[in-house]
Write a structure and sequence with these properties.
Chain lengths: ~260, ~220
């Protein structure tokens, strides 16, 4: 009897449609978000994450509507990220039916925002999303090092990812969503060294993201990377694997799962 | 027969939308009200006290809206009552969160922080306890109907209730220590987990609640 590790399908939503890009580019349509969420819910997903990748105001209203529709049909935790900049954005998403919000660049811009959000809404609903890229390698530089990148991976903030995760925990993050921008969309597996470095450094749950191409990658994220949850998009969206198959594969590997 | 009216107590904290939507799903014919109006809550057939966030803020808001008085009145009246998460913790005597907060004294006991524990990798167990964990039904109760023993429910919390009298414990879960997953006494039932986020099993529990007459 123990706490189960979680599988979280992630829906990148643009103007009311699920899309999936490779390394943040090259967008492919993967359907209506509410329908996709319902399918994952039926297959036994442990949570669902929506990332709003629309830049426009109209797109944002569409997102709120999508969250509202989904919350009326899917009764598992829902995280919404993308474009969360102010306390009011959080309030709107929670009122629409989200359980947690993902904060990314707004935290980099002003870390106190995370503190204020956690104080107002509770740590349990504040997920700090970290986009990290490796800048030093153990084999050639002597140690692994990752920096936080913003602007879709174009801008190096110079902030160390592991130190940032520790800081965000102390500011009230309830969970860390950790994406490797080197691995994202390329389906070669998580950046295990990154996941493990962050997961072992903080005492809040870490969700590994970026790079899942097969079920062994999910297993590796938990067993090798020490992640508490694994997030994937394209392996589920395009029907390569169902959530159920993924859960069974993880259970076969000795991981506690909710089947 | 009077129509079922489910009042969700709104004291400005938490995501009431989820609980409301879940009630609408399991009881489409019931009237759902999300309110802090005393008369409406007193006249409801079922009352639900949700809660997320920090205990200090929750109790602070409850006192501001006189929710403490309403909760006592509703429970005394015999109305079926369900507390969820912080809405369960608030029913104890005292919480050690935020340097100690006095609570509603419906159950004798305290709300305490999880003990430190070690995970499979030899690392400290993560706090909050977040995710799906099994609930052992330690006592028979109408709200467990059609739910298998050891079913997983969704949790997110760092503190848990410690009852003085274990006869009121209805369910138990194991993390760094064994803790109260659910408590119950007469017309009151409360869960540390979130039934509204616990998929089919959670919806079943809410359905059982809406169909419950408050008797055990």
């Amino acid at each position: 009897m123990a706490l189960a590790k979680r599988i979280i399908p992630c829906l990148d939503v643009d103007n009311g449609r699920v899309v999936k890009g490779v390394q943040f580019l090259d967008i492919k349509d993967a359907g209506d978000p509410v329908e996709v969420a319902k399918r994952y819910n039926e297959q036994g997903a442990d949570e669902i994450t929506f990332l709003d990748i629309t830049a426009t105001h109209e797109g944002r209203d569409t997102m709120e509507d999508t969250v509202r529709k989904m919350a009326a049909q899917v009764f598992i935790p829902l995280t919404v990220g993308g474009g969360i900049r102010e306390l009011d954005d959080i309030q709107r998403m929670l009122r629409a039916g989200a359980d947690k919000v993902g904060i990314n660049s707004a935290a980099v811009k002003r870390p106190e925002f995370v503190k204020e959000a956690a104080e107002r809404f509770g740590k349990q609903c504040i997920v700090v999303a970290i986009d990290a890229k490796q800048i030093a390698f153990a084999d050639k530089d002597g140690e692994n090092k990752w920096d936080i990148f913003t602007h879709g991976g174009r801008k190096d903030t110079g902030i160390d990812a592991v130190q940032w995760a520790i800081k965000m925990e102390s500011y009230g993050a309830g969970e860390i969503l950790l994406t490797s921008m080197d691995q994202d969309g390329v389906k070669k597996g998580f950046d295990i060294a990154l996941v493990r470095a962050v997961s072992d450094a903080v005492n809040i749950p870490v969700i590994a993201s970026g790079g899942v191409g097969n079920l062994q990658h999910l297993v590796d994220g938990v067993i090798e990377g020490h992640a508490d949850a694994v997030l994937a998009a394209s392996i589920f969206h395009f029907g390569e694997y169902s959530i159920k198959e993924a859960k069974l594969a993880m259970q076969d590997a000795g991981i506690e799962m909710r089947i | 027969m009077t129509q079922t009216t489910v009042a969700v107590i709104d004291y400005g904290m938490g995501n009431l939308h989820s609980v409301g939507k879940a009630i609408e799903k399991v009881a489409p014919d019931a009237k759902l009200v999300i309110t802090n109006d005393h008369d409406i809550i007193l006249n409801a057939t079922h009352v639900l006290l949700p809660g997320v966030g920090a205990m200090r803020d929750c109790m602070g808001e409850m006192i501001k809206f006189n929710v403490d008085k309403i909760v006592h009145a509703v429970i005394k009246k015999g109305t079926p009552f369900l507390g969820i998460c912080v809405g369960m913790q608030a029913l104890l005597n005292r919480s050690e969160e935020n340097n100690g907060i006095e609570c509603l004294n419906v159950f004798d006991g305290d709300v305490v922080h999880f003990k430190a524990g070690i995970d499979d990798n030899g690392l400290p167990l993560k706090i909050p306890h977040m995710g799906w964990n099994q609930v052992k039904q330690t006592s028979k109760h109408p709200l467990w109907e059609n739910i298998k023993d050891n079913t997983r429910f969704y949790y997110v919390h760092s503190y848990h209730a410690q009852l003085k009298d274990s006869q009121f414990q209805m369910g138990q879960t194991q993390y760094s220590e064994s803790f109260c997953a659910a408590i119950g006494k007469d017309n009151v039932f409360a869960t540390q987990f979130h039934p509204e986020k616990s998929h089919d099993a959670g919806l079943q529990l809410l359905k059982n609640f809406v169909n419950w007459n408050g008797k055990v």
